[in-house]
Specification:
By secondary structure, this protein is α+β, with helices and mostly antiparallel strands. It has a single domain, classed as TATA-Binding Protein. It has two helices and five strands, in the order E-H-E-E-E-E-H. A five-stranded antiparallel β-sheet has the order 1-5-4-3-2. It is globular and about 35 Å long. The N and C termini lie far apart (37 Å).
């Protein structure tokens, strides 16, 4: 599964936001009770190991100049939740990458 979310923030700002909110990734996973471990093998790629619904999943987020691409390998047993996961990624990603608002 692959979900691309456009942004206009610049890579540094996207990295800052992802690093600052990576502890909230588990909250966005449907079904709750997820354990998410993250690491940054390079400055523009965050890898995730996710334990949810009794399944181990691996994913990553790649930061590009104009979009963030979320990759997730869903096992066949969880294929039925792909639309739900894609929707959650889109919604949460758009909130995270929204341009700053003037106050």
């Amino acid at each position: 599964m692959q979900v691309a979310i456009p942004h206009q923030l610049g890579r540094e700002e996207v990295r800052r936001r992802l690093k600052g909110s990576s502890h909230q990734i588990a909250d966005a996973i449907p079904g709750g009770m997820a354990d998410v471990q993250t690491n940054w093998p390079s400055e523009d790629s965050m890898h995730m190991a996710i334990l949810a619904l009794g399944q181990s999943l691996n994913g990553r987020i790649d930061i590009m100049d104009d979009q963030v691409v979320f990759f997730m390998d869903l096992p066949p047993a969880l294929g039925f939740i792909q639309p739900i996961v894609e929707s959650a990624i889109q919604q949460q990603g758009q909130k995270l990458l929204a341009p700053p608002t003037a106050e």
